[in-house]
Amino acid sequence: MAELRGSFGVARNHLLTRWFGTEDLHRLEVYESKAGGYAALRKALLDMKPADLVNEVKTSGLRGRGGAGFATGVKWSFINRDAPGPKYVVVNADESEPGTSKDRYIMENSPHMLLEGIMIAAYAVGANQAWVYIRGEYDGPHRMLVEAIAEARAKGYLGPKPMGVNYPLDIQLYRGHGAYICGEETALLESLEGKRAQPRSRPPFPAVKGAWARPTLLNNVETLSTVPWIINNGGAAYVKFGTEKSPGTRLMSVSGNVRKPGVYEVELGQTFRHVIMELAGGPPEGRRMKVFWPGGSSAPVLPESMLDTHTDMEALAAARSMGGSGGVIVMDDSHCVVKAASRLLRFYAHESCGKCTPCRVGGDWAVRTYDRILANEGSQVELGILERVADGLQNGRCLCGLGDSAGWVIDSTFRHFREEYEDHALRHTCKVGSDA
Amino acid sequence: MPDVNVTIDGHKIAVPAGTLVVEAAKLLGIEIPVFCYHHKLETVGACRMCLVELTPGPPRPQTGCTTPVAEGMVVKTLSPMAVQARADILEFELVNHPLDCPVCDKGGECPLQDFTFRHGYPTSRIDGPRLHFKKPIPLSETIALDRERCVLCYRCTRYYDEVAWEQELTVGQRGVQSFITSQFDQPLQSIFSGNIIDLCPVGALTSRVWRFESRPWDMTHTETVCSKCAVGCNVNLWQRRGQLVRVTSRENDDIDEGWICDRGRFDYADVNDPSRLRTPRINGAKATWADALTAVAGGIKGKGAKLGISLPKDITNEEAFLFRRLLEGPLKGARVKMHGRTALPAPVGATLRIKDLDAARVIVIVASDTEDDVPIVNLRIKKAASKRGARLIVIHPDGVDLDRDPRTIHIRNAPGKAAAEVRKLATHALLKSPGGPVAILYGDGHGSEEMADLAKSCRELADAVGGDVMPLYRATNERGAIEAGVGGWDQLDGVEALLSWGPPPTAGIPSSVKFMAAWDHLPRPENEKSNVMLPATTFAQRQGTYTNLEGTVQFLRPPIEVDPPLKESWEVLTELGVALGLNLDYAGVFAIQREAAAAIPALAALAQPPSPEPAPDPVLIGPAHP
């Protein structure tokens, strides 16, 4: 197995990653005997009722770890368990947010922890069938899940009578085909149904009409992987970590210009200085921090001066950014922000599904405008175009968050690094790095 | 459910619960521009054109096409937020849109043009190259696709999926590189393909038949009825300088719901054919009408069963009424064959209306491939199945397109044995408790079924399961002609005299014919041997009424006048009647209508023709308005 780059072992805040690094943790017998695995599922199926499970997760205050941060217990309660007909659980393992690799960290190290969380969730909302939608590029994690599911089926934890309880449970895998938009929950459902991956208009939300128009619970990998700990230790224990409105811990993938990139389990409320400078070792020798994306490339950037921002959702909202996927991308002073923003807009334009006008056209128009600016053909006109495109991409104009994210890239880099933009567009120069 | 009170731009209105904001605004005459929204398709909220400010609501604009009204809702379409949102979206749509207006057929009836004038920015900031595609792409012989003009509203692909149940069009690539394409670049083959021209809000999908023919303001149109089959879809016929230049749908929710098939839309080249006949001829030489009709009368009078008459499928009720006078008098005993007829007998008792299909819970279709026989009724069946959950039972020897619904039950009968299968259905699980009305539609299996028995078995089944029948006539005015007593089904072989009105008989001219009078609008090889040739008018010039297959009488309004030496058909029939010794004298079509209404109960509606002036043409919004 590859070297473990990130949190593992005993520590107060290692709720998810406590057992990572144990040899063969991905095997069911090791997960059970050494890491206390499947005790939560046993407790859920044999000692608790579905309503109790939902309440426990509500008490924990766990918020979705995929990007939106919606209260997980509340989401579970939206599924009407008693309505006739099948309900489904769909796991968002598409993990395509730039800078994010935490779900992969979980699936590679402890796939059974994810499966256990899925099974508990399915039982809680009245679903018998779950799908894991995993991005096509994740060959390794996919293989781990295939083996783990086979083990769970052989052990009888998945099947007609898991642990002897008359409640059939099964998990199937579906591989994506290379589209960032499939991380958006309704586009994911369209892809799962075999259709073109484009988001749906909401309402109706997946809890009412999801996969094949059935009530569907859609959760992120990390969110579900946290459930076993909550069931084992209780929701009240989870609240003791983190902040009041953002309890618990989360896995933050730190990448970019840092000495120790990796996936670190961080108690919410810690500062980004702790995460970037202490956990990840800060930028290399001789270079200074310049800017960082706190929650994947879709989160508005923060400059070095805001390193002491706390990692909980409220603090980030106050800083005009967001927690997002917890993918922390760090850039030091040898890089040009305008070039970085241009590269990101290229990503969003490429990944745009094309369904709604502003994202489809605005993304491409922004890319072409950045190209002109970076080719020293810019002027005030190009800056004006970027501002107007950013405006046209935000504020409810787009059908889903992809457009908003592209708008925030332009918006937030303008807000904090306007001078660099003006250097390029008005003075046709770049004062950063090799061009300085 | 009670009505909902909503305020739009300060105006209050009460609308039924569930009404979308864009529709509520329309009722007040307030335009909320849309591209992807269409009242006959599922809403998607894709184009973002209809953004409005809603209170209560988030501090962001919302799409009016996906939001139903709520009690007390306040909608603002003119607030700065809404105005700017719309202008921004329009600007985005125009970024890659080519400057084709001078050569684009949509110009003059184009929502993109109109919205930009009414809602867009007055100046453009678009500088630099636009996205380019190879264009135009011939999607079929009748439809051209221009990908540069396309605004990706997806109306065409959604229409194909939801309404026509075919997947002929799809979207290739993604993001800004997206483009509309046919599956595997195959030409479109569906009989329903033409509707995408009316649906497309820009000039991306245009008619190749009408390409570069005229501007909308150069044409006038009349509101009339299609002449191609018994469904009787309502259409607009557009003329320019005496030529029929295009056909579009005139939405009638009782019959066609805004769709027409490709036969109705594109088959009109014969109207403008320069080789159209214009003068009567006797043995090839030009003659006057009087002489020609005297010659015809001489050739066909008093021949009894030795006279064969072929009638056109689109004979109007008025012409049929007149012809009956001839058949009861001087032409008594003649054998009559109506062109394009089915073998279906006259309707007995109440029959279903097309709109009744909406409420049906089970629809049984016997001995008919409705996609081919009655295309727009086929679409209505599809709507009942996919949007209202109706179940379909098909009795037909071959597969039909309704089989695309996996819930369709298809019983493959041996040809000729359909009635037996119908009788077995009385005990079918689906029909034991259908949960609502049952509709039984039956055709004639193109001659393979014994019709009297099949009709009887369908009526028996309807009585047994709580339903009603719809006989699927095919010829345009088949039902009207039958009810007028002229819808003949006789064989014509062995006749010595032949009056061929309309296209020549499908079985050919019998070799026994010694005298032939042909009354047609185009020269045809079969008619070359005729003794008398009379020039006929086309469907675009015909006044009168048709009775569609459900029994609705509809009035025609021809866009093109009958210019001498051509004569209207009713006039020719009157003069022929006189030449045959009858006392016929009518001042106009209306006089015939009054008499026919009194004589034939099924034609009672003829006593009240609508006003001769068509409804005023809305200026800004053309036939494909959003």
Architecture overview:
The complex is a heterodimer of chains A (436) and B (626). Chain A is an alpha/beta fold. Chain A has 3 domains: 28-237, NADH-ubiquinone oxidoreductase 51kDa subunit (Rossmann fold, 3-Layer(aba) Sandwich), CATH 3.40.50; 249-332, Ubiquitin-like (UB roll); 337-425, Up-down Bundle (de novo design (two linked rop proteins)). Chain A is built from 16 helices and 9 strands. Chain B is an alpha/beta fold. In chain B, 24% of the residues lie in helices and 19% in strands. In chain B, helix 8 runs parallel beside helix 15 (569-579). At the A-B interface, helix 13, helix 14 and helix 15 of A face strand 4 and helix 2 of B.
Topology diagram in text:
The complex is a heterodimer of chains A (436) and B (626).
Chain A: H1 28-35, H2 39-47, H3 50-60, H4 72-77, E1 88-93, H5 102-109, H6 111-125, E2 129-134, H7 139-155, E3 170-175, H8 185-192, E4 216-220, H9 221-233, H10 235-239, E5 249-256, E6 262-267, H11 272-279, E7 289-293, E8 302-303, H12 313-318, E9 327-332, H13 337-351, H14 357-374, H15 380-393, H16 401-425
Parallel strand pairs in A: 1-2, 1-4, 2-3, 5-9
Antiparallel strand pairs in A: 5-6, 7-8, 7-9
Helix pairs in contact in A: 2-6, 2-9, 3-6, 5-6, 6-9, 13-14, 13-16, 14-15, 14-16, 15-16
Chain B: E1 4-8, E2 11-15, H1 21-27, E3 51-55, E4 62-63, E5 73-76, H2 80-95, H3 111-119, E6 137-138, E7 143-145, H4 155-164, E8 169-172, E9 179-182, H5 195-199, E10 205-207, E11 220-225, E12 234-240, E13 243-249, H6 262-266, E14 281-282, E15 285-286, H7 289-300, E16 307-311, H8 317-328, E17 335-338, E18 362-366, H9 370-373, H10 375-388, E19 391-395, E20 409-411, H11 418-424, H12 429-432, E21 438-442, H13 451-465, E22 467-471, H14 478-484, E23 497-501, E24 515-520, E25 532-535, E26 544-547, E27 553-556, H15 569-579, H16 589-599
Parallel strand pairs in B: 1-5, 16-17, 16-23, 18-19, 18-21, 19-20, 21-22, 23-24, 24-25
Antiparallel strand pairs in B: 1-2, 3-4, 3-5, 6-7, 7-10, 8-9, 11-12, 12-13, 14-15, 14-25, 26-27
Helix pairs in contact in B: 2-3, 7-15, 8-15, 8-16, 11-13
